[in-house]
Amino acid sequence: MHGIFTLLATSTHVESLDGDWLWALIKAIAFVGIFLTIVPVMTWVERRGSAFIQDRVGPNRITVFGIKNAGLLFPMADGLKFLFKEDFLPEKAEKILYTLAPMMIMIPAFIVYAVVPFSSPIMHESVADDGAITRYIFSIQIAPNLGVGLLFVFAIASLGTYGIIVGGWSGGSKYSFLGSMRACAQMISYEIPLTLSVIGILMVYQTLSLQGMVAHQTGGGLLGISWLPHWGIFVQPLGFILFLVCAFAETNRAPFDVVESDSELVAGFHTDYSGFKFALFFMAEYASMVTMSALIVILFFGGWHIPIITPENPGSYLIDWFRGFDMSLLWASILTTVIHFAVFMAKTGFFLWLFIWVRWTLPRFRYDQLQALGWKVLLPLGLVNVAITALLLLFYGM
Amino acid sequence: MSGEDKPVFRKVKNRFADEILGVDDYRGDLAITLKGGRIVDICRFLKNEPDLDFKLFVDLCGVDRSRLPEAEGESRFMVVYHLYSVTKKHRVRLRVPVEEDNPVLDSVTGVWLGADWFEREAYDMFGIKFRGHPNLRRLLCHEEFVGHPLRKDYPVRRRHDCTRPADLLIDRQAAIAESTDRMFINVGPAHPATHGALRFGMEIEGETIVDLETEIGYLHRCMEKLSETVTWNKVIPYTDRLAYISSGLNEVGYCMAVEKLWGVEVNRKCQLQRIIVSELSRIIDHIVVLAAALVDLGALTNYWYLFRIREDVYEFLEAAYGGRMMINCCRVGGMYRDFPDGWEKKINIAMRNIEEFVGDVHGLITNNRIFIDRTRDIGCISGEEALDWGWTGPCLRAAGVAYDIRKDKPYYGYDQFEWQVPVGTKGDCYDRYLVRMEEMIQSKRIVEQALIELREYENEPVNLDDRRICLPPRDQIEVDQSDGEGKKTRVKDPMRNQPYDKIEDLITHFRLVSEGTKPPPGEVYSYIEGASGEVGFYAISDGTGYPYRVHVRPPCYAIFQAFGKLMRGHMIPDIAAVLASINIEAGELDR
What we know:
The structure holds two protein chains of two kinds.
Chain A: H1 3-9, E1 13-16, H2 21-53, E2 63-64, E3 67-68, H3 74-84, H4 95-111, E4 119-127, E5 133-140, H5 149-170, H6 174-205, H7 210-216, H8 232-235, H9 237-250, H10 262-265, H11 275-300, H12 314-323, H13 329-359, H14 367-396
Chain B: H1 7-16, E1 20-26, E2 29-34, H2 39-48, E3 56-64, E4 77-84, E5 91-98, E6 104-106, H3 115-126, E7 129-131, H4 170-178, E8 182-187, E9 199-205, E10 208-215, H5 223-227, H6 236-240, H7 247-262, H8 268-296, H9 301-321, E11 330-331, E12 334-335, H10 343-366, H11 369-375, H12 383-389, H13 393-398, H14 405-408, H15 429-454, E13 476-482, E14 488-497, H16 503-514, E15 522-529, E16 534-541, E17 547-553, H17 555-560, H18 563-567, H19 572-581, H20 586-590
Parallel strand pairs in B: 2-5, 6-7
Antiparallel strand pairs in B: 1-2, 3-4, 4-5, 8-9, 9-10, 11-12, 13-14, 15-16, 16-17
Helix pairs in contact in B: 7-8, 8-9, 8-15, 8-19, 9-10, 10-15
């Protein structure tokens, strides 16, 4: 089934490094570090990207030693500004909750990364004196053995809603209150179609583990067409559309940004927040954008698989190819991992750009129209999708 | 035809002969002076009589006549009504004297809804009380303000400290406090949706607006009072700041009013230049309105697409008059100066870009389902109700009434151009959006035709050759301009004029600047099609160089008074959609 796992099956002894808490900690720090860096890069992409879409120049004023850098240092300037702004506390605020709210939204946004498989695992082999081969496997995923991966993602991601509700309510402002009421209703209405939209694909993949899902999308030959990769989007096109729409709603991005709609509610639930507390809300929004993009890639776009390279044994294809150059398994798999990681990030990057692209193209929904879309269109479509998938599986098998 | 013979007057005379104190037909404005006792009956007659059909309530204002020489011994105040019939295309001015010791008059809010704010303003400015008005409180001035500022004995420089914000929805507060599912929410004066300093209080149930009351006046600058302290020409910069995003139109309207007082018509070249400036102003006004409306609906990108055109127009205006927003281009009897060298090229660039960017916005928005959902059937008003409120301009046309002053009473030969008046059907936000989009294209057509005609007048003067009105002409100094490749050409420097070579010219210049042009005594109402409706100027001259009274009839003032009623039953997000679509410019609203 899976190239890498076939390779592992031939080994006499396989040792996984995933259970080692020290490695897990190192990986956690590394990935949180990577994604904390993605957030400022995303703000830069958003500002330059919107400028590109809107036919204007965009931020380009910061030059270092006379070198123009297309505004790349603006995120740093923004960060500094957030640090030095007054940390404003409204008079009517519930002080403890008001302070906790940004953390409540920030922490779940990052915990979710624990189960995301970013790339193929790194492998190493050592040959003992008696000729027995021991292979070591090192997953590029913080918690690779979590079988309920997808459920974990949904469960943790929806905790972020509490941050929005608490933040909006505890500020003591009517605008934030209205914003958090909207958030509350919106989250409930869109969690349901979001979950429904993946049930179809769960039935196809027969697993909740994200790693397993990626493994399932290996290779080509879907529907007998040799070049068509075995990706979720071709198996579940309707499920993909539903999931994409709900992803926009779940991240409160335009056109579903009624929670912070600036022309009506000033800034919605975070109207009164300033300084770094505001920055945390801001970062959480981008972090959840990254999560959602990564999920779309894992569920529907083959995770870290490269679409065109689809010979019989695709997972280890790159490794085999590198080993053909007389490389050790360790180096070959490291190179493979790096390439797969880049592919994964490229796919995720496309969807991040899609988030930005849509934001600067579409107008905003009205709050009740958004609800109507969720309950009257997405929910029935989600149910239809589940029914069709079930029937197809029943009569035609997988 | 004298005023006595006009059919409108004859009709009124047949019915209310006892009420009529006099009739006047100065410069073609029919003005009937009436006793105040039966004003409501007369107004109802004027509105409902099929041959008169004065459905559009245009304007109401007060006048303090205590310093007017010919009004010696008469009543101190005069309440002046302006009415118009869209079907019969006739106008009338009613003048009702009001005594100083008992300044009370019956309110006509029962006849036209639109009289509401105009009567409040007259009360605010002159202290004239309107019996039967539902909410006779101060409007432009603050509640803590003392005195009535437009009275002639009110010193211009007196100041009051006003600190407390006005209470809104006073009679609803108790009910809101008792209710568990209703909430009072304050919007503004600084709120992203308000587009200038306005404030409103809402009673909401969930997100549905139960009631809404507006408070305006945050940008009140006493423009009408200030106008009385400067010469006629010096009022022009004040008019710039009325509808500040289409300042050219206000100036044209004001200068037309003073020229009407004089009884003169400007040169054709000046007319064409004013047409070009007006239509460019209309285009940039619509751009700002549409761009802001789309931003409020979350479609931010269109803002930049549209503002590109605005920038092109400003390039031209800046080259022509030095200013961008406040161009200060018109003068009584002419223009500040002729168009500069290379003007045609600059306008052509702007005209070329209009179609492209408007097309882009059409592509992004017009058939966008989200946009249609947000604007269809939102803020609907019927044509009849819109007239009743005194709506004019694109908002009225969106409601299906094809009233455009450029077509109905063409000035400056607008009827010679080929263009059309776009009309909506439902009067909702979507129709208002479409009407404005189309009007930009129609304005472009007018500009293009005016450009062709303007070429014929290349070497003619812009200003009137009348030394009572216009400054004596002077040539501009010619300077060498290098084109960067060593070639030099002689061009006129628009910033520098030759000195006068005759002492008479110098003296004329001195007297016109320091004393001002002195139109003969009289009163006129002059009106043009502004960007958001009928911009009217009611001007009274007492024969001096200073205006005796300048009253502005701001189109968005009449429109905005219907806002509270328009919003009832809608949701909070609709505020942004409706407010942006009816085009509120606080500068014009508050004056």
